Amino acid sequence: MITRINHIAIVVADLDEAIETYRNKIGLTLAKRLTMPEQEVEIAFLPAGESMIELIQPITEDSGVAKYLAKRGEGLHHICLEVDDVERTLEEMAERSLQLINEEPIRAAEGWGFFVHPKAAHGVLIEFLQPFDED
User: Fold this and answer.
1) Topology of domain 2-131, CATH
2) Spatial distance between the Cα atoms of 81 and 90, rounded to a whole number of angstroms
3) Among residues 2, 29, 107, 109, which is most buried (max CB within 10 A)?
4) Would you call 21 helix, strand, or coil by DSSP?
5) What are the helix and strand counts (H, E) for the chain?
6) What is the pTM of this model?
7) If you write DSSP's letter for every residue of 37-99 in order, what string do you get?
């Protein structure tokens, strides 16, 4: 079951500059910054109410995010919907013949997730995410 919008991800060319804009001009607070070598990105999370803004900068020139940035420029990358059971949600989406990017959950910065191809969602990359337990 979808429980909320977890985050909206924005791809940026310069993470420091983007953090400066979202923190000092828009008024959000930087909660976390991390590098995910397996996804070839550096990420910053800025809470916005019950959801977050996720800023993503590629750290290599040939990653998927780098190719996205080169082709489309900075801007909206994906919308992340939080779910209570990522494996069940993945099975349901596959049963509905939705075009998926991942056939099994992958490790994300904040939990386990998978992506629905933009062609299947009217041009929007959708991530489903089950956050890590905080225990």
Assistant:
1) 2,3-Dihydroxybiphenyl 1,2-Dioxygenase; domain 1 (3.10.180)
2) 12
3) 109
4) helix
5) 3, 8
6) 0.91
7) TTTTEEEEEEEETTEEEEEEEESSSSSHHHHHHHHH-SEEEEEEEEES-HHHHHHHHHHTT--
What type of residue sits at position 67? K
Q: Which strands make up the sheet holding 75-83, listed edge to edge?
A: 32-36, 41-48, 51-58, 2-11, 75-83, 126-131, 111-116, 106-107
Compute CA distances 118 → 85, 121, 123, 134, whole Å. 22, 5, 4, 31
pLDDT in tens, 6-27: 999 999 999 999 999 999 999 9
Return the number of other C-beta atoms located less than 10 Å from residue 68's C-beta: 18
| Three-class DSSP category at 135 | coil
Q: How far, in Å, CA of 96 to CA of 124, rounded?
A: 18
Residue 135 pLDDT > 60: no
Q: With H, G, I as helix, E, B as strand and everything else as coil, classify residue 20.
A: helix
